[in-house]
Design brief:
By secondary structure, the chain is an all-alpha fold. It is built from six helices and no strands. It has one domain. Helices cover 55% and strands 0% of the residues. The longest helix is centred in the middle third of the chain and has 26 residues, at 96-121. Residues 139-148 have low confidence and may be disordered. The chain binds zinc ion. Zinc ion binds next to loops.
Amino acid sequence: MSADAFLQEWTRITTELTQVVETALDVEPPGECPEAWARWLTRFEVPRLDEERRSEEVREAKQTKGAPLREVQGCLESLAREASARLAPLRKTLSAEQAALVERSLHTFASTAFEHYKTKATEKKKKMFGAAKALANQHQYGGFGASTGYVLTCVTCRAPRLGESLTCAFCGGELAGVS
Ligand SMILES: [Zn+2]
């Protein structure tokens, strides 16, 4: 049996991971709770902090934008648990090497994305306007490529990969020079 079902599920998960981080980073001013973010909290059953806690936490974390760190972490951990459960039955379609790679990726999944979020959410704002700002946003978060910022994936088949590996354990494609 091929790893197709696994790859499909993995892609779904990394796509959702990207969306969670992007929606959280879109929250401005920091600590607000727009509808788009509230939906993720509901989706992952993460309790929403009350108004006072929200503003306190974003101030303490020195966030320049974004949802409170604690809420984001809650969502990411919940997604990682869910991913692990959803992928479990598909692992028997994988080789030992592939399964080990998945194990490692799932292990660092939530923490890597969270570190990325923390960096972005506390970044000092650059003064950018109009077209320049739209372009910068597009480059940072536009399209599917953004997920490579949180989870390393093969550009060819979207499978999980490790930074040090040179060929993809799933499709055999070259990984050198791809970040
Ligand atoms: Zn691949």
